[in-house]
Amino acid sequence: MNALVIYVGLGVLTLALVLGVHHASSIGSIRFTHLPRAAGESRSAWWSRVFEAVALPLLAGGAVVAFWPLVLAMQARDLPKAWRSWRRRQRPFRIRRRNLRNRYSRAEAEAREFVHDPLGGVPALPFGHLNAAWCRFADALPPGTKLRAFKAPPDADSYPRAQREGYAAVDRLGRVGAYFVASRVELGKP
Amino acid sequence: MTAQIPEVLHFESSQHPMCTEPLEDYFELTGTKSPFPSTCSALWRGYIGTWEVRDRRLYLIGLNDGTEENAELDLATLFPGHRDRVFAHWYSGTVRLPEGRLLKYFHGGYASTYERDGLLRFDKGVLVDVSVRCNGDAGDVDPDADDEGYVVAAMTRFPAAPRDRDPSE
């Protein structure tokens, strides 16, 4: 009897651990509090919502308590992968010298980046709808800062893996400072 | 985890579900946060964008909030001075338009598989390539399958919460 209580107790602790990890990694903190049946919604659709929101979590929780050694083993197996993924996400995107292209003044860069649309779907400003973000970047640069265009292919150090293009401030020693990304293509999609 | 409601794309005189979110790239590039709160587990992004390809260009032509009323949101809130049409010049990448019957349902993201995927590749908002990827025949999986169209099996609607900033205001 005591062994059973200890087993279930450890199962409950494991469930609390799993829920804590899930809570820490979930997006936002929105909770549902009721399940109103929408007008015109079929009974089967309503039941599937109830199943998803109530029965499924209860079944999953029960399974964790009953089979907690298996759950812990699975969590331990995924740990190295999750750690590597977390470390990768902490690394900011970086521009390397080899990614740098031509040198431009702010005025030259802005002249290159006017966006035209025959249907008037974009403001007549440098970088179009991204103009406000560009101005925030460019206004913060010290006067006389030279910009260099960059095109950075995806590498293992950036997350998400994407090719980025834009302009970067580069000092006399060739060190890359602030940058503005004007275009980004995420890889592995769709 | 819940399958997500897709965006809508008007392309070649037809309306398609679109499993790509170009507006998220806009938020990323401008360093701004989406003002749209989540209303439902099948719509974490909090909006449904309606897009159009016209003269090989990608335009955002509408936004709805995805609630049961599916209220229209004002484009000019995000793009001042552009109430009807916004050229998505910031978007480069491939959009996916699932077509045909469902092959395999997955209750998360846009991960369900359909018979075909229309793939439209854009470079700075301009359409540069169109292709179709064939994923299989639903008849091989389920001989009785006959329904076409995008499927979200179940979702949980969230109670209305006070908004920090109402995008329709």
Ends apart, CA distance between termini of chain A: 54 Å
Give me the strand/helix succession of chain B. EEHEEEHEEEEH
Structural class of chain A: alpha+beta
Shape of chain B: globular
Q: What amount of the residues of chain B lies in strands?
A: 35-45%
Q: What is the typical, i.e. mean, pLDDT of chain A?
A: 82
Question: Which range best describes the helical content of chain A: under 10%, 10-25%, 25-40%, 40-55%, 55-70% or over 70%?
Answer: 40-55%
Overall geometry of chain A: elongated
Strand order of the largest sheet of chain A: 1-2-3-4
Number of helices of chain A: 5
Count the E strands of chain A. Answer: 4
Radius of gyration of chain A: 26 Å
Architecture overview:
The complex is a heterodimer of chains A (190) and B (169). Chain A has helices spanning 2-25, 43-66, 68-90, 106-112, 131-139; strands at 100-104, 147-152, 162-170, 176-186. With 190 residues, chain A is of the alpha+beta class. A 4-stranded antiparallel β-sheet of chain A has the order 1-2-3-4. Chain A is elongated and about 80 Å long. Chain A starts with a helix and ends with a strand. Mean pLDDT of chain A is 82; it is low at 26-40. Chain B is mainly beta and 169 residues long. Chain B has helices at 22-30, 75-78, 138-141, and strands at residues 7-11, 14-18, 48-54, 57-64, 72-73, 86-87, 93-104, 113-123, 126-134. In chain B, the strands form 2 sheets. In chain B, strands 1, 2, 3, 4, 5 and 6 form a 6-stranded mixed β-sheet that branches. The longest helix of chain B has 9 residues, at 22-30. Chain B is globular. Chain B starts with 6 loop residues before the first strand and ends in a 28-residue tail after the last helix. The interface between A and B is large, with 38 and 43 residues.
